[in-house]
Specification:
The protein is an alpha+beta fold. It contains 13 helices and four strands. The longest helix has 39 residues. The two termini are 25 Å apart.
Length: 410
């Protein structure tokens, strides 16, 4: 069954990246309305479309009357000279599949966690055969999952209540705001666009960047730890020192250095909203996230793995292979699963800065522009969606952790 677990995890990971890739695709779109008045008003419902405002620019308007055609930036009512029949057209680009950004980031996280577990179990089975199978503690996974889910719901209610309190301070109706936030209906931004659509369209780019940078970081750093434990010497010393290198050369430091080197001095890679070959825009942000965190994550895992007492296991008559592939590798799997959700949270925080540096149209870039514009609705929406991602990823990590180590179910 273990090879099937690995195949399922790879399918989840590929599906998550594919969803995020589909969600960033744009297409031209128009919303048309008409009326007979002295003020031309935008067509109803235009603000709830998934406009690609960060990547392609906000929509523009055209008002057609018997006296001519008027085109202008943005979408707002236009005063006419007389009462007359008009046609109001809102044009721009939309991301019609932006809603796929929500499941994509969770599929990427779940695929990464399950994939790592499946790989470790497969290695253990190939090296040790039946000796890789331990005696699991019998306990119900359903009760454990229900307990974790109840904690998730309580945490979400607390987060929503905090955001609703911010709305109450601004003299909004507290109960209606709380109900709206529980249904993720966050109103309109200062641009007149739905906050939901702004967040979903920007989350599409954030989830795609996460899928490209987070999964390789977890896999490569974990196998670097295995190699370092077997070889010791320089490899182990490098991993232990990489923590300090990663802290000193944080993602935003590397990002600024790469920006000036490979975009301004040597214009090799473009930055900003992708306009053409997508991967060329992705290289600098992904590299900025990858190199610091691969060392930090590997260093975090190696100390937990080294807690396995090799002298005790050898004293019990166990061979080096059993010590390595059963005990050390088992500790590696549990240690990684227990910290994988916190690693995702740390990388998402780093992404906020990286997106702002490279003008990558994700949640971090949206948050920066909203803070500059004083758009508190969007800021609260980003806070809510970020907290939800963190809580749900913790819930998924707990489930995988409970499957990998049945002792935590008790």
């Amino acid at each position: 069954m273990r090879p099937y677990l690995l195949l399922v995890s790879l399918a989840l990971l590929a599906l998550g990246i594919a969803f995020s890739l589909f969600s960033i695709q744009t297409s031209p779109f128009s919303v048309v309305g008409y009326g007979n008045s002295s003020v031309a008003t935008p067509p109803s419902g235009w603000e709830y479309q998934y406009w690609a405002g960060l990547s392609k620019g906000y929509p523009n308007s055209t008002v057609i009357t018997s006296k001519g055609v008027t085109q202008f930036q943005g979408v707002h009512p236009l005063k006419l000279n007389d009462t007359e029949l008009y046609i109001y057209v809102v044009r721009g680009y939309v991301q019609p599949l932006a809603y796929l950004s929500v499941p994509s980031i969770f599929l990427i996280f779940l695929g990464t966690a399950l994939g790592f577990r499946g790989t470790i179990l497969l290695i253990q089975e190939r090296e040790l055969g039946e000796l890789s199978r331990g005696n699991a503690v019998s306990s119900s996974i359903y009760k454990y999952a229900l307990k974790r889910f109840s904690s998730l719901v309580i945490s979400l209610i607390v987060v929503v209540a905090v955001v609703a309190l911010l709305e109450t301070v601004k003299e909004f109706t507290p109960f209606s705001e709380l109900l709206s936030l529980l249904t993720f209906n966050m109103g309109l931004s200062k641009q007149g666009l739905s906050v939901d659509s702004l967040i979903l369209t920007s989350l599409s780019y954030s989830s795609f960047l996460t899928g490209i940078s987070f999964s390789p970081t977890v896999y490569i750093s974990s196998f670097l730890v295995m190699y370092a434990i077997r070889k010791k010497g320089f490899a182990m010393s490098l991993i232990q020192k990489w923590k300090y290198i990663g802290n000193a050369l944080a993602s935003w430091v590397i990002g600024i250095a790469l920006l000036y080197t490979f975009h301004y001095y040597f214009p090799v890679f473009p930055v900003g909203s992708p306009n053409g070959y997508l991967l060329s825009y992705l290289v600098l942000p992904a590299v900025s996230l990858f190199f610091p965190y691969i060392g930090i994550f590997a260093n975090r895992v190696v100390y937990t793995v080294l807690s396995t007492p090799p002298l005790v296991t050898k004293a019990k008559g166990l061979s080096e292979d059993i010590v390595m592939y059963r005990h050390v590798l088992g500790n590696l799997m549990v240690a990684t699963l227990s910290s994988i959700s916190s690693a995702l949270v740390e990388m998402l925080v780093a992404e906020f800065l990286i997106e702002a540096i490279f003008s990558w149209p994700g949640l971090g870039y949206l948050l920066g522009r909203s803070v500059d514009a004083g758009d508190i609705r969007v800021v609260e929406g980003v806070l809510l969606i970020y907290s939800t991602i963190v809580l749900v990823s913790n819930f998924l990590a707990d489930l995988v952790y409970g499957i990998a180590d049945p002792r935590v179910r008790r």
